[in-house]
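TL;DR need structure tokens for one chain.
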Amino acid sequence: MFTVARLRTFVAVAQHGSLSAAALELSYTQSAVSQQVAALEAQAGMPLLERHARGVRLTEAGETLLAHAESVLSHLDAAQQELAALAGLRAGRLRIASFPSAGATLMPLAVATFRARHPGVELTLAEDEPEHVLPRLAGGELDLALLFEFGEESEAGGQGFELAQLLEDPMYLALPSGHPLASRRRLRLEDLRGQSWVQTSSSSACARHVVRLCIAAGFEPQVSFESDDYQTIQGLVAAGVGVALIPEIALSSLRKDIAIRALHPNPPLRKVIAAMPPTAQRSVAAEAMLEILRDISRRYVPFGPAHRPSAASE
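>> reply
TL;DR here they are.
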């Protein structure tokens, strides 16, 4: 088996036409260079060099091996350069996906920050619900996914992904601004028995969680309308056709004609998490994006001062 070290030595000898010149370039002794060439000739089974008074000449076999050796070393050098570029985030790609409400809030700044720091990395962003994103992450189509989960059980963690919690996302009650309950100082989920509800599609994780919460409070929600667009849900609430539980992160763009109230004693919570393959399979670019997302999440302010749920609702 030809080794890289022997091939490099042989190429240096061929380029300089001298064992001593090759030894000087490689910081070897002339004896070490001679031994490397001799070992290579033994492996080849024929002479590769002709020695003469002024140096060495390649034999026909030496010319043949030189062409292949230069090609092999060129490919190895290119591989090393590309790997160094990946490690230094000067090249490569990062494929990420996010659920829609995070895609409208956390991800724009994360994408802009990543591109400014690492312009050589090709970055793509897809948007979908967690139940559709997880199979793509498991299949290797994605390097990082932004998901949400409720409760202690973790579907993503159960599939072997490594998870990093970014923030807690409380869910607030959205009411038409003139709704009688909007003036109540304290609202409990039980107070919403008999109300018409607007929620995301029944198959979504959020809708299933809302139904579980209402059943635990002693009633089943009467769902009048469904939409997976939280702006549409706000519009339906504003029109007076129902009430809704909306995650805080989906309230960054808030209508003025709806009332946002916290539920007592504790608002329902969902966790926003980043999911990635295990460390051994994870890209340097995904690690860099995770740090950016952590920083943005620490500084994230979902409500402006004018829209934060008022003390009257607490």
